[in-house]
Amino acid sequence: MAGRTVKKDDKAGTWYYTLTYGKNEKGKPKQYKKRGFRTKQTALQAMNELEHSLMNETYIKPNKTLYKEYMTEQWLEDKQTKVKRQTLETYRWLVTKHVIPVLGSIELSKMRPEQIQGLYNKLTRDKNLSDENIQKVHTLINDSLKKTERWGLIQKNPAALVDRPKSARKEINVWNIDEVKRFLNHPDNDSRYSIAFLLALTSGMRQGEILGLRWKDVDFENGLVRITQTLSSDGKEIQPYTKTKAGARTINLPKGTMNALKKHKKKIQVEREEDRAGEYVNLDLVVCSQNGTPTNKSNIRRAFERAIKLSKVKRIKFHGMRHTHATMLLIQGVNPKVVSERLGHSTVRMTLDVYSHLLPSMQRETADQLGKTLFDE
C-alpha cells in the first residue's frame, strides 16, 4: 500500500507531495518527493500521475541532463544526417541565439509547457525574429522533446501542450500583365541574367532551382525543363533537389522561352570556346558566371534591381516573379492543381492558401462566364 501525503510548505508558500511506493534495492520502502506546486490540487494531480506510472511500470526516472546539453551534444548532431547544411546552420543559430539563453539551463525532466510558452511570448515581444522563425523555434523544440519522449528520457513532451505560434500572412506583391510585358522588354533585356528573369516569370521556378538548372535538364524537343537540383541559399553548393516529393518536377514552357533558351545557350557556348586560359568551369549550368561557376546571388539581385528601374515597374523581390507567374495562371482560369504542380507545392491546398486573395475575383469571373454560357448575359 502506497503512503500518500500532500502538504504546504509555509515558508515557500507552495505545496509538495510525498509518495511511498515499492521498495529500493535494500528492501526498504521507496519514497518519492516533489516540491514547488502552486496549489494543493496540482500537487495531488502530479502525485496521482506518478503513482499511476509506477503501477503500470511506465515510470521514467527524472533525467538530470540540461536542455542545452541535449540540444548541442545530441539533437543538433543527429540532425546532420537529416537536413541540408544550410538548414542545419539555421537550426544551430536559432538554438544557440534564441532557445538556449532562455531554456538551456532547465533539466529535461523539469521542462514545463509554461516555460516554452514564455519563450514564445518573449520572442514575439522582443521582435528580434520574424513570425516564420518563431514558428521554426516551435518546430525544433517540439521535435527535440518528442525525441526525448520516444527515447524514454522524459515521460511526456511538454511542447505538445503548447500551441504553435501564429504567423501573420505577408502581403504578396506581384506584377500585372502590363508590368510583366514592360519588364520583359526593358532596354537591358539582353543581359546574361535576363534568361533567369524570363524563366521565373514563365515557369514559376524558385531562384535556387533556376540557378541550379543544367542544359541536360532542358528538353528543347518537347519544350520543357526538369527540376533535379538547386543552388543552396548561400550559393556555396549545388544540391540534389529534395525539398518535397513534388519539388523534383517537369515544367512545360512557352515557345518564346524555349527560343530565348536556345539563344542564351549559343552565348554560353561562345564564352566557353573563347576561354583561352582554361579557367572555364563547365558545370553545364544555364545561368552561370562568365567562368561557368554558379551565379553569385548578389550579382543577380543587382541586375534584377537595375532591370526594374529601366522598365519602370514597381519594385518586387525576385521571389515575387514566382508569385506573379502563379497569379497570372489563376486569374486566367488555369486549374489550381496544374498551378500547384508547376510550382512544386506539396498539395493544392497549399497553393490555394498562398493565393487565397485571388479567390473573390476568380469567383466573380466564373459566375460571369457561367451567365454568358447559360443566359447569354
TrEMBL record:
<keyword id="KW-0238">DNA-binding</keyword>
<comment type="similarity">
    <text>Belongs to the 'phage' integrase family.</text>
</comment>
<keyword id="KW-0229">DNA integration</keyword>
<dbReference type="GO" id="GO:0015074">
    <property type="term" value="P:DNA integration"/>
</dbReference>
<dbReference type="InterPro" id="IPR010998">
    <property type="entry name" value="Integrase_recombinase_N"/>
</dbReference>
<dbReference type="InterPro" id="IPR050090">
    <property type="entry name" value="Tyrosine_recombinase_XerCD"/>
</dbReference>
<dbReference type="Pfam" id="PF14659">
    <property type="entry name" value="Phage_int_SAM_3"/>
</dbReference>
<dbReference type="Pfam" id="PF14657">
    <property type="entry name" value="Arm-DNA-bind_4"/>
</dbReference>
<dbReference type="InterPro" id="IPR028259">
    <property type="entry name" value="AP2-like_int_N"/>
</dbReference>
<dbReference type="InterPro" id="IPR004107">
    <property type="entry name" value="Integrase_SAM-like_N"/>
</dbReference>
<dbReference type="GO" id="GO:0006310">
    <property type="term" value="P:DNA recombination"/>
</dbReference>
<protein>
    <submittedName>
        <fullName>Site-specific integrase</fullName>
    </submittedName>
</protein>
<dbReference type="Pfam" id="PF00589">
    <property type="entry name" value="Phage_integrase"/>
</dbReference>
<keyword id="KW-0233">DNA recombination</keyword>
<feature type="domain" description="Tyr recombinase">
    <location>
        <begin position="170"/>
        <end position="368"/>
    </location>
</feature>
<dbReference type="InterPro" id="IPR011010">
    <property type="entry name" value="DNA_brk_join_enz"/>
</dbReference>
<dbReference type="GO" id="GO:0003677">
    <property type="term" value="F:DNA binding"/>
</dbReference>
<dbReference type="InterPro" id="IPR013762">
    <property type="entry name" value="Integrase-like_cat_sf"/>
</dbReference>
<dbReference type="InterPro" id="IPR002104">
    <property type="entry name" value="Integrase_catalytic"/>
</dbReference>
